[in-house]
Amino acid sequence: MTRTLTLKNRFQGNTTIVENDFIDHYMAKANGEYVKVYLLLLRHLNANSGNLSICGLADCLECTEKDILRAFTHWSDQGLLKIDYDDAGNICGLAIGKPVPKVAPKDEVSKDAPRKVVPSKPVRKDSKDQEDLRQLYFVAEQYVGKPLTVSEIKKINYFFDTLGFSTDLIEYLIEYCVENGHRTFRYIESVALSWADAGIASVEDAKLNTLSYNKNYYSILNAFGIKGRSPAPVELEYMKKWLEQYGFTLEVILEACNRTIANTHKPDFKYTDSILKNWSTNGVTSFTDITQLDLTFQQQKANGKKTPAKVPAKTRFSNFEGRTYDMKSLEQQLLNINR
């Protein structure tokens, strides 16, 4: 069941408004996808359709529901969005408006003293952070092999500001993606988001998360007799498919690799994929299932009908009746002639 949201209008007027304050102070520093979400919410303020939902927003912007929730969190942190939750902890309402400055408690402020405004969010980066990021930009350029674009720099800032990644973790992220054959920041961002969803907050966490996959990759390469190099991008895609999409254990995958070598005498990822696809279709989940599938195949083969002998095609000589000879009679006739 799709959960709908109520959206309250804290602006005046009946038009879609984008205030200059948002453009001047919030938009430039925000991730572009977050800006899209915010503008779409503004558009729905006066729609009164009653069909606003997280799922609907995600479909409209062609992103995931998690992307929408990240945008909600960002604008809530900025003070531009108030999120209401029901008793079950689900989002049930949103209110858009200007940020309300936080002030010190009344008992700590004298009547005559001006109120001290507390920022809704700490300053984004101090001087050390700025220097670390500048160094990170340089390192990232060495990994991807070209100068960074403005968009790519903004993505690195997004990893730092919004996802909360340290510069060390961002450097390892870029290194990890490049070593696996992916230099585009679109791919790097997808990995960063998956790490954020997994709660990865340090280089150690990231290494532990990828260690099991890396071990599996090299075990598969070894089964093919491939040593001394990292897997190629196309090989990685196949192995990810076997491990993640098919969900096979390493034992099952290695058996398919062994059968590939036995039948083709070479490492053929496409041939192995055809074996694993067939096993997936037949519900194989373990080595025992493979054994049972082989046994069933052999039984069906043994119980199958034998192929009948091929009947020669008829020719113009097919109706000719061949002669028959009495060999003993012929021999006797030859003996009489010789006498």
**Low-pLDDT residue spans:** 100-124, 306-311
What is the count of helical runs? Answer: 14
CATH fold-level name of the largest domain: Arc Repressor Mutant, subunit A
Number of domains: 3
Sketch the major β-sheet. Answer: 3 strands, mixed
- The CATH architecture of the largest domain is Orthogonal Bundle
**Beta-strand fraction estimate:** 5-15%
Order of helices and strands: EHHHHEEEEHHHHHHHHHH
* CA(first)-CA(last) distance: 112 Å
Lateral strand order in the biggest sheet:
1-3-2
Structural class: mainly alpha
- What value does the average pLDDT take? 78
Radius of gyration: 36 Å
Question: How much helix is in the residues?
Answer: 55-70%
Structure commentary:
The protein folds into three domains: 6-100, Winged helix-like DNA-binding domain superfamily/Winged helix DNA-binding domain (Arc Repressor Mutant, subunit A, Orthogonal Bundle), CATH 1.10.10.10; 127-201, Arc Repressor Mutant, subunit A; 209-300, DnaD domain-like (Arc Repressor Mutant, subunit A), CATH 1.10.10.630. It contains 14 helices and five strands. The protein has helices spanning 20-27, 32-43, 54-61, 65-77, 127-144, 150-161, 167-179, 185-197, 203-223, 233-245, 250-264, 269-281, 287-303, 327-338; strands at residues 6-9, 81-85, 91-96, 102-103, 117-118. The strands form two sheets. A three-stranded mixed beta sheet has the order 1-3-2. It has a two-stranded antiparallel ribbon with strand order 4-5. Helix 3 (54-61) packs across helix 4 (65-77) and helix 7 crosses helix 8. The longest helix is centred in the middle third of the chain and has 21 residues, at 203-223.
